[in-house]
Design brief:
The complex is a heterodimer of chains A (422) and B (102). Chain A is an alpha/beta fold and 422 residues long. Helix content of chain A is 24%, strand content 28%. Chain A contains 11 helices and 26 strands. In chain A, a hairpin with a 2-residue loop joins strand 22 and strand 23. Chain B is globular. Chain B is of the alpha+beta class and 102 residues long.
């Protein structure tokens, strides 16, 4: 395909969008590339939002770790439209209208619009001006400012998922008094098994974070100097800083308006194309079918954003490629590094492996019948890397050997041998 | 200021200069093929694996346990393997050569 006179517009300039722009050049797109985002900052790494960005001394643009330098976009002739919101996509005229009134024509459109924080339906929550979420740089700066100016550093976090727990750990390290309220019976209820949730619950407890599970916030009220959070069990908590981390919803509005098929995200085919011609979707917003896990899914992760950016770029330049990468994730809390590879959903049994010579180091291996489908590794990079390889290569792994920490952790020791294979 | 040479899998030699940041950040900035640094430099992804020239390997601070663990089962690991997001740039490594591993 001769792309010299073509326009590609990418809406959303985070991990997915920014990588897509650069991948397009790498893969030979010669035409114009527009990269548009309502966020004014040069596209930056997002995982540190709940970690380093909360503790940076001087809050300024340069504090956010850029994905790529400004010069790099110039060199690659990528036109950045930062701070500009897309207000309309016209799929018939094939154009995108910005809040400035500017209209960008496209031949190919990539939607990398991401996801937004869900504000749970709690009485008084929308009237309270001090409720914070954590999705972008401005949010991190706001939380940091709230925290620095707060009298007692009393922080309440609603939601015991990864964002809530990472933020809890970061603000604790900065000297806060942290309370996490989780409405489910345990933390990480949607995303991790009991074994892992218990470990993190203890980790936070040992570090002085108070976590209350089975505790639903039902009313939020702004007092003169604090915020009061009433819970269904009658408890009342008082906060200087209130953060809500209760999950996200995909930003599908633009796609809906052009009639693209939506189902918990923008539905895409194996080539990451939406149901609308010449319109693609990637990253947190894309709902895709994973051939290995034989399921529709939407993943909120750096890996998914970056890997889909590469595949979509190939498809946009006309080299058909299908997306099938093995997902991986990580979370840093206190001294603990959690690394996850694969997807554990639908597992039929799990095996916990501890290491004989190491404390605070273990891994959870998830099997679906005989197949290894996921590994969660706590302070255990070996299990993360080797587990990922096993999953990718469909290696038959022996759960009994995995569970036996007397067996040294080496690939050949852990796979099923002829005699015990079935 | 330190001079740094990257050699890609394709044999391309890229010479750069810098005084701060990490070897991974410098490589990403200058599009060194095979160094992605997807996790942003927090030793979580192993997409910045290099082989350090032996005479320089000893000069570097030893890898942390998590870095060694990540490398142990990575493809093309050698005794001179490092994740270059964990190598800070300073005068001390002036003249270093690293080969991209994957």
């Amino acid at each position: 395909m001769n792309t010299t006179n073509l326009n590609c517009v990418i809406i959303g300039a985070s991990h997915a969008g920014a990588n897509c722009a650069l991948e397009l050049r790498k893969q030979g797109w010669l035409g114009t590339i527009y990269l548009v985002d309502a966020d004014e900052y040069l596209p930056y790494h997002r995982p540190p939002l709940s970690k380093d960005y909360l503790s940076i001394e001087k809050a300024e643009t340069s504090s956010f770790k850029p994905l790529f330098t400004k010069e790099r976009y110039l060199e690659e002739n990528i036109i950045l439209k930062l701070g500009d919101r897309v207000i309309k996509v016209d799929e018939k005229q094939k154009s995108v209208t910005l809040s400035t009134g500017e209209i960008l024509d496209y031949d190919k459109l990539v939607l990398a619009t991401g996801a937004s924080a869900i504000i749970p339906p709690i009485e008084g929550i929308s009237a309270c001006k001090k409720v914070r979420v954590l999705r972008n740089a401005a949010d991190a700066l706001q939380i940091q400012q709230d925290f620095k100016t707060s009298a007692n550093k009393e922080v309440v976090i609603i939601g015991g998922g990864y964002i809530g727990l990472e933020t809890a750990a970061s603000l604790k390290k900065m000297g806060g008094n942290i309370t996490v309220l989780e409405c489910e019976e345990r933390i990480l209820a949607r995303v991790a098994p009991l074994e892992l949730a218990n470990y993190f619950q203890e980790l936070h407890k040992d570090n002085g974070v108070k976590i209350y599970t089975g505790t639903s916030a039902i009313k939020i009220e702004e007092k003169e100097t604090s915020i009061e959070i009433k819970c269904s069990n009658g408890k009342i908590y008082s906060a200087d800083v209130l953060i809500v981390g209760t999950g996200v919803k995909p930003n599908t509005l633009l796609a809906e308006e052009i009639g693209a098929e939506i189902d918990n995200g923008i539905k895409v085919d194996a080539n990451l194309q939406t149901s609308v011609e010449d319109v693609y979707a990637i990253g947190d917003v894309a709902q895709f079918y994973h051939p290995k896990y034989e399921a529709w899914m939407r993943l909120e992760s750096v890996q998914n954003a970056v890997d889909q950016a590469k595949i979509v770029a190939a498809n946009v330049v006309g080299e058909a490629q299908q997306y099938s990468a093995i997902p991986w994730f990580w979370s840093d809390q206190f001294h603990v590094k959690l690394q996850m590879v694969g997807l554990s959903k639908g597992y039929t049994n799990l095996v916990v492996r501890t290491e004989a010579d190491k404390e605070d180091c273990f891994s959870i291996w998830y099997f679906k019948n005989d197949d290894l489908i996921a590994v969660d590794a706590v302070n255990n990079g070996k299990a993360f890397v080797l587990g990922g390889k096993f999953i990718k290569n469909n290696t038959l792994v022996d759960p009994i050997k995995i569970a036996d920490h007397a067996i040294p952790f080496k690939p050949n020791n852990l796979i099923k041998t002829e005699t015990n294979a079935h | 200021m330190a001079k740094i040479t990257y050699i890609t899998k394709a044999g391309e030699e890229i010479q750069l200069e810098a005084s701060s940041g990490s070897l991974m950040e410098l490589a990403v900035k200058h599009k060194v093929a095979g160094i992605d640094g997807d996790c942003g430099g927090v030793c979580s992804c192993a997409t910045c694996h290099v082989h350090v020239a032996p005479e320089f390997y000893q000069k570097l601070e030893a890898p942390t346990e998590i870095e060694s663990d990540m490398l142990e089962f990575d493809d093309n690991v050698t005794e001179y393997s490092r994740l270059c997001c964990q190598i800070p740039i300073s005068e001390a490594i002036d003249g270093i050569t690293v080969n991209v591993a994957n």
